[in-house]
Each structure stands twice: as C-alpha cells, then as structure tokens.
Amino acid sequence: MKVLKKFATTILVAAMGLSLVACGKSAKKITGKEFKKALKSDYAVQENENDDCEEEYIAVNEDGTIMIIYDLFESKSDAKAFWQDGYDTIDAALDDEEFDGDLEKKGNKITAKGTFEDNDYFDGDAYIVVIRAEEMVITAYAQDTSKSTIKEVDKAIETLGY
C-alpha cells in the first residue's frame, strides 16, 4: 500500500508540474510607445530609422554601458529569423573560441554572459538578453558582466514585462 501511495503521489506531483508549464505565460509583444514609456525614466530613448524594421527604438542608460533595442518586424518569421541569427552568431563565436561564457536559449529568450575576443560583432565583457514575441524583438546589451549591471538589465527587461 505504501508503494502505491508513493507512486500516486509522484504521478500527481508530475501532473501538477506539467499543468503549470502548460499554463505558463507566453511572451506578448509590446508597442514602441509602451517600450519608450516603460524606459524613459532611466534611459534616453529615441526612435531610429532601420530599413529592416517597421519601427525601432533605442534606449541607452546614462553612462552608455547599456543599450536596449526594440525592433518591430513586418512578420513573425522575420522576427524569428533575426532572433535566431542572434543566437547563431553567439553560438558560432562560442564554437570558434571567440566567446568565453554562457549561452542559453529558453523559449523565446536568449541570454549570453561572458567575454568576446577577436569577434566581428562584440569585444570584451558582455551581457546580452534577446526576447522575441510575435513580430517584435527586444535586445539588451551591456558592456559589463558585473552583478549590478546584470541586475540593471534584468530590471529593465522586467519593467518591459519580460
């Protein structure tokens, strides 16, 4: 009887865990105006011209060490391709030993933390977060991997709803 109770308990716990995962919140896109409004108190935010996007905003912190970019693409497939290219670029740098650090892709979020050397796109320490939701991609890039900088980037991403 004890074995049956343990087995039933294990099954119930697993089922509850799966139901929580299934009900997880998926990333929802925001508008450029929402991006600007959410970050304007801590960042200088400006609209930018980008032929690859319908809309782009760039937010930079006071000392210029953190940049957060909002891109709205014409289609979900364009956004996904851009997001995947970002992952592939960092993954290739990792394979080519141009990046020493951690790279993680989880759902619609990519996170990279480490040091780039001799790379075409990045140089030095970097903390990068890239989030995709529908036709939108948000890219946060910090030129530092200190705890305080990571906390600041993560706070901005949270402020944006991610």
Notes on the protein architecture:
With 162 residues, the protein is an alpha+beta fold. It has a single domain (27-159), classed as Protein Transport Mog1p, Chain A, CATH 3.40.1000. It is 38% helix and 31% strand. Strands 1-2-3-7-6-5-4 form a seven-stranded antiparallel β-sheet, with helices on both faces. It is globular.
Shape-level CATH architecture: 3-Layer(aba) Sandwich
For this structure, the CATH topology is: Protein Transport Mog1p, Chain A
Please outline the major beta sheet: 7 strands, antiparallel
> What's the CATH class label?
Alpha Beta
Structural class: alpha+beta
Per DSSP, the total helix count is 4
Mean pLDDT: 86
| Distance separating the two termini | 46 Å
**Could you estimate the helical fraction of the residues in percent?**
25-40%
Strand content: 25-35%
Radius of gyration: 19 Å
Physical arrangement of strands within the biggest beta sheet: 1-2-3-7-6-5-4
Number of self-contained structural domains:
1
Spatial shape: globular
* Unreliable residue runs: 1-25
Task: Tell me the number of strands.
Answer: 7
Short description:
The chain has 162 residues and is α+β, with helices and mostly antiparallel strands.
Features:
38% helix; 162 residues; single chain; 4 helices; 7 strands; seven-stranded antiparallel β-sheet; Protein Transport Mog1p, Chain A; alpha+beta; disordered N terminus
